[in-house]
Amino acid sequence: MRRIRWGVLGTADIAKTRALPAMAGAPSATLAAIGSRDLARARAMADAFGAPRAHGSYEALLADPEVDALYVPLPNHLHLEWSVRALEAGKHVLCEKPLVLRSAEIAVLAAARERTGRHIEEAFSYRNHPQWAKIRELVDLGAIGEPLAVHATLAKQFHDPDDIRNNPDKGGGALYDLGSYTISACTQVYGRAPQRVIGALDRDPRYTIDRLSTAILDYGGRHATLSVSSQGGPNAWASHQQFTVLGSRGWLACDFPYAHGRPTACHVFVGDEASAGSMPTRTWTFEPVNQYALQFERFSRKLLGDDVPSWPVEDAATTLRIIEAIFASARDGLWKSP
C-alpha cells in the first residue's frame, strides 16, 4: 500500500507530544523527515520518532524530494510564510490552527493552492473525531428539530510567560487559540457565518492578550454564545469543554467535544420530549480514539485519491472574520458584521 511521506517543519511541543506519536497509528502515513533551524534538535526528534532524515534548516526540508506533505506546527505568526513556501516547493500542507492571523491572508493561501495544485488544510484535529460525524448526522436528520442556539465554552490555564499564547505579536490570546475551536464548532452546526457579533474581552495587564473572551453570534433568528479563557478552569491535563445545541424540539450535548490531549471515551447526548432536565433520552458512546492519528490518516487518504471529508482554507476565513469582528466589537462596544 502506498503511503504519504510526511515531513515536520520545526520541533514544537505539539509535534512531539501529540502529532508524531499519533502518526504511527495512521496506516496511510509515514514519517520521512524532520526540519529545524537547529540540526541537533532535528536529529534528536528524528531519532526519537524514527524519521530517516533530519535537516538543519526549513529550506532543506522543503527541498527534500522524499517528502510529499508537510505538517506545520510553527508559531502562529509564521504559518502564512511557511505554508506558502511549502506549497510552492510542491508539498501538500497540514498547518496548525489558527491557519493565519488575518482573514485577508487566506486569499494568499488560496492563490498559492491554485497556482501549485497542492492541497492545504487547517489542522483542527477535533473535526476528525467520529462524534462530530454523529453530531452532523443528528442535526441534518432533525433529531432535535431546527438548531436555535449553540453554547460553547473552552478554558485552560496558560501562565508561562514564554508560552506563545501569551505573546500578542505571535497570535496569542484566548480567542485565537481556544476561540477558534468554539467558532469552528458553531460553523459545523449552522454552516455559515453569523450576520453580526458582539463581544466582551478581559485583557491580562502583563501580557495584554485577551484572557477571557465572550461573544454572542447572531445568525438571524438563531444564536450562538461562546466563552473562552486562557486563565480559567482547572489547571489539569484536559481543558474545560462544553458544547450544547438547543433545538426547536430538543437538545444535544457533548462531554468532551474539542481537543483530546489523550484519547478518552466521550459521549453525545440527545434530549427530547421524553427527557427530563438535562437527563438525555439517548446517548451515543465513543471509545477512545486518537484524533491526531485520524487526522493524518484522513489527510493522507485524501492525497491518495480517496473520497474522504476535507475542509478548504476558505473555512478558516470564516473563523478569522468572526474573531476579527469580536475584537472590533469589544473595542467599540457595538455589533459588528464579520
| Low-confidence residue ranges | none
**Average pLDDT over all residues:** 96
> How many helices?
9
Considering DSSP H and I runs of 4 or more, what fraction of the residues is helical? 25-40%
* Span of the ends, CA to CA: 45 Å
Please compute the radius of gyration using only Cα atoms. Answer: 20 Å
- Total strands: the figure is 14
Structural class: alpha/beta
SSE order, as H and E?
EHEHEHEHEHEHEHEEEEEEEHH
**Can you tell me the CATH class of the largest domain?**
Alpha Beta
Our estimate of the beta-strand percent is: 25-35%
Provide the spatial order of strands within the biggest beta sheet: 8-9-10-7-11-12-13-14
The largest sheet is:
8 strands, mixed
In CATH, the architecture of the largest domain is 2-Layer Sandwich
How would the global form be characterised? Answer: globular
Can you tell me the CATH superfamily of the largest domain?
A: Dihydrodipicolinate Reductase, domain 2
Walkthrough of the structure:
The chain is α/β, with parallel strands linked by helices and 338 residues long. It folds into two domains: 4-123, Rossmann fold (3-Layer(aba) Sandwich), CATH 3.40.50.720; 127-290 and 319-332, Dihydrodipicolinate Reductase, domain 2 (2-Layer Sandwich), CATH 3.30.360.10. It has helices spanning 13-23, 39-49, 58-62, 79-88, 106-116, 130-140, 174-190, 291-303, 313-332; strands spanning 4-9, 29-35, 53-55, 69-72, 92-96, 120-123, 147-155, 196-203, 210-218, 223-229, 240-247, 251-254, 266-271, 282-286. The strands form two sheets. It has an eight-stranded mixed sheet with strand order 8-9-10-7-11-12-13-14, covered by helices on one side. It has a six-stranded parallel sheet with strand order 3-2-1-4-5-6, sandwiched between helices. Helix 1 links the parallel strand 1 and strand 2. The termini are far apart. The model has no long low-confidence stretch (mean pLDDT 96).
